[in-house]
Design brief:
This protein is an alpha+beta fold. The chain contains 24 helices and 28 strands. 59% of the residues are buried.
Length: 721
């Protein structure tokens, strides 16, 4: 690991001397883009991070929200992109382990995991298929071994991710407010390293993740051990209950270098430590290796001498190694020794705070004409086209993915994966809904509007379970920030997310920025991922069986916004056009209206319209509940669009509501009062999915045949090609 020449000069100036070898390694880890956020940190301050439910404490690795009755939830999101692109099983698994420890660091029990995944074109790219298959297995195996349910996520395939992978893992924790760890320390407190042994795996991982992926550096990939992680969770929670922990920090990117410097800086203390006291997996590890190793399943604890014996007894009970590696000082210095020899002695504020950069930005040239459409070849047979469409990797059911996850362990999951969002039961009688969403195709065409659309889609999904959004996680993934055009797309996405968050008063409670996501074959498309947490005070909308005669109501208008749609890109192989935009006022009215009718018990099912448009959303309902329908396209509120645009536009702020005919009048009264645009567009029944326009049949699909293709096509593609 190494510093850039300007950074070396900066460090030398700040400490007034030439740094030692160990100091260089420590600072290179902490000043890496992955750990320091030096390109993005000053811009992230625009995000709203406070709110009536947000609890802020020094040094937390996760966001905390008060859900009432003395309880809190915690949430965080992390990525393991570079490691997963090299070794997908281990990279994805250790990504799960890291985000779980972030939740644990606040003193809460991890209760759920969800993820967002991106891979290349798995229809044509065997390597992309291999990455996908093994990353999913890594996530499944680690979560299943821990006994923590993986409750959902989303997956997208695009050739911009060729030879690469984006693996975003989010986690949710739950606990009593009184049990939150209030990080503090005083002189004489001791510093304990708990968990797995430190080895040579993951050395240089943070810097590896802070540059373009040009080589397979397998030594930078960490080795997962979920069984140790499970024991750590139980040991930490018991130590927390016994009030043995003064401060707690996960060892993630940068290893001990970052954990020690960030803890000391956050608490305005110094820490003196001895690398000889660190329990290691391999012989003859030098101080540089010990300080920057990213071996997994490790936690840093600050406690006092009088509490050490109890902490050691708990570790012995769970068969976890713990080592006293140092103590707290008052001098705000990070002092690393090997026995009596000093290896590093640096001010903690210097180590933990890299100089922030002012990156130039410039609108990309490709955006000048991107919204221009070309004349598309007319579709002769929409039924045949739909059969191809529902079998495509981005539209097909993801049951092959979430079927590998144990999503019911822990007995909290009341709405399972496969619906718009998953829902967890909380101990205070309330429910938590969670969903993660992204759309790189929209974000490529318009980074600002695309990012807003990702945010709104995630909100729509939790609203469809009857939940009110209360908090947001964001993960902003882009290419090389040194390229002004790429940095412009990052800033535009961030501004869009900020504007939406402020308008809807949804605070950002955690997030991650991942840059340098590119390979020699090129950069990724702008890929912001948004996770939404929603709270349900009473009962979630648990979908009942859809019956013959039930009505279908659409809320929201279908607009001429085809840019970035699956229809344009998968069917017509065309990238361009105007991408969907969100009218904030319209979005809020529609969202509140749908929440209102769900709360009043008028709706049997709710489903948002998104990827693939109305045609896919209706078909998903029919295929999931094994019932046909008749849809009148002329009744869909739209801007006098051609039939293909009514079917496949991905306009935002649209919801499908399913209800019994007897409740239709009450529903319409409420929707009219809210002044939303809506209409009754069809009725369920039979065994065919039919879309008609003015009595002319446009699409006619057999429910049984469609369902088999939709459910099985992804599995068949991954396993058999």
């Amino acid at each position: 690991m190494s510093l850039e020449s300007g950074e070396l000069d900066d460090l030398t100036l700040k400490i007034g001397r030439k740094p030692t070898s160990t100091e260089l390694q420590i600072v290179a880890a902490e000043w890496s883009e992955h750990c320091s956020y030096k390109s993005s940190k000053k811009h992230l301050k625009m995000l709203p991070m406070k709110g009536p439910l947000v609890i802020s404490e020094k040094g937390y690795d996760s966001g905390v929200l008060d859900v009432g009755d003395g309880y809190v939830i915690t949430a965080h999101i992390e990525s393991h992109n570079h490691p997963s692109a090299v070794e997908p099983y281990g990279g994805a698994a250790t990504g799960v382990g890291g985000v779980i420890r972030d939740i644990l660091s606040a003193g809460t029990r991890p209760i759920a995991i969800f993820n967002g995944l991106r891979f290349g074109d798995i229809e044509k790219d065997l390597h992309a298929r291999w990455l996908f298959k093994n990353a999913v297995k890594g996530i499944a195996d680690y979560g299943n071994c821990l006994g923590i349910p993986t409750i959902g996520g989303e997956v997208e395939f695009d050739k911009c991710y060729s030879n690469y992978a984006l693996v975003d893992v989010a986690a949710i924790g739950f606990g009593k407010k009184k049990n939150l760890i209030k990080n503090h320390a005083k002189t004489g407190d001791i510093v304990v390293l708990l968990g797995g042994a430190t080895g040579r795996d993951g050395i240089g991982g943070s810097q590896f993740a802070s540059d373009s992926l040009e080589s397979e550096n397998r030594s930078a990939v960490q080795i997962p051990d979920p069984f140790i992680e499970k024991l750590i969770i139980e040991a930490i929670l018991e130590a927390r209950t016994e009030n043995l922990i003064h401060a707690l920090k996960d060892l993630g990117g940068g290893g001990l270098s970052c954990a020690v410097s960030e803890t000391a800086d956050a608490l305005s203390i110094g820490i003196e430590m001895d690398v000889d006291k660190v329990h290691t997996r391999e012989l003859n590890m030098n101080p540089d290796e010990i300080m920057v190793s990213e071996s997994q399943e490790r936690m840093l604890i600050v406690t006092s001498n009088d509490k050490l014996k109890k902490l050691e007894d708990i570790c012995k009970k769970y068969r976890i190694t713990c080592s006293v590696i140092g103590h707290v000082t008052l001098d705000n210095m990070m002092h690393v020794k090997k026995g009596e020899k000093t290896c590093a002695n640096l001010p903690t504020d210097v180590v933990a705070n890299a100089t922030l950069l002012d990156r130039p930005s410039k609108k990309p040239a490709y955006l000048e004409n991107i919204e221009n459409e070309k004349k598309l070849k007319p579709i002769i047979d929409y039924t045949k086209m739909m059969m191809k469409f529902i079998a495509s990797p981005n539209i097909a059911s993801k049951i092959w993915v979430y079927g590998q996850y144990d999503h019911e362990v822990g007995i909290r999951t009341v709405v399972k994966p496969g619906k718009d969002a998953s829902v967890l039961r909380l101990d205070n009688g309330k429910f938590l809904s969670a969903k993660i969403d992204g759309n790189p195709k929209h974000c490529y065409i318009n980074p600002r509007e695309g990012a807003i659309g990702c945010f709104e889609e995630a909100c729509r999904n939790v609203v469809c379970t009857g939940a009110k959004p209360i908090g947001m996680l964001d993960h902003l993934q882009f290419g090389n920030p040194e390229n002004p055009e790429i940095f412009w797309t990052f800033l535009e996405s961030l501004k869009g997310i900020t504007d939406f968050a402020k308008y809807f008063e949804i605070p950002c409670v955690g997030g991650k920025v991942s840059l340098y996501n590119e390979t020699p074959s090129g950069q990724i498309k702008p890929t912001p991922i948004i996770g939404i947490l929603g709270l349900i005070d009473k009962t979630p909308l648990s979908t009942q069986n859809i019956s013959k005669g039930d009505c279908i109501v659409i809320v929201g208008q279908t607009k001429n916004e085809m840019g970035g749609s699956e229809y344009f890109e998968y069917i017509h192989k065309f990238i361009g056009g105007k991408c969907p935009t969100v009218n904030f006022l319209e979005s809020k009215i529609n969202m509140n209206s749908v929440l209102n009718v769900i709360t009043k018990g008028l709706v049997k099912a709710a489903h948002d319209c998104s990827k693939g448009g109305l045609a896919v959303a209706i078909s998903e309902l029919c295929m999931t509940y094994q019932i046909g329908c008749n849809i009148s396209l002329e009744k869909v509120p739209n801007q006098k669009l051609d039939v293909d645009r009514i079917l496949f536009s991905e306009s935002h702020s649209r919801y499908l509501l399913v209800l019994e005919k007897k409740d239709l009048k009450k529903l319409e009264t409420l929707l009219k009062k809210s002044k939303v645009e809506y209409n009754v567009i069809g009725v369920f029944g039979g065994d065919h999915i039919r879309f008609n326009k003015e009595s002319k049949n446009i699409i006619d699909l057999s429910v049984d045949k469609s369902q088999k293709i939709w459910f099985n096509s992804l599995k068949e593609l991954v396993l058999h090609g």
